[in-house]
Specification:
By secondary structure, the chain is mainly alpha-helical. It has one domain. Helix content is 76%, strand content 0%. It has two helices and no strands. The chain is elongated and about 45 Å long. The mean pLDDT is 85.
């Protein structure tokens, strides 16, 4: 799968995972770490896309 197509897919999956998270008020630390994990994945994909010659 190309990097350009993976960025929106990861963003959509990340939003879906966060909406399905049980009670974010009581599990706030895990909720934030999950969100930061998906943001990190998107940042890595942007960096790979910027540095690749495709």
């Amino acid at each position: 799968m190309r990097i350009d197509k993976m960025i929106p897919v990861v963003a959509i999956v990340g939003v879906m995972v966060l909406f399905m998270f049980p009670e974010p008020e009581s599990n706030f630390g895990r909720y934030v770490l999950t969100a930061l994990g998906f943001v990190g994945i998107v940042v890595v994909l942007f960096l790979i896309r910027r540095n690749s010659n495709f």
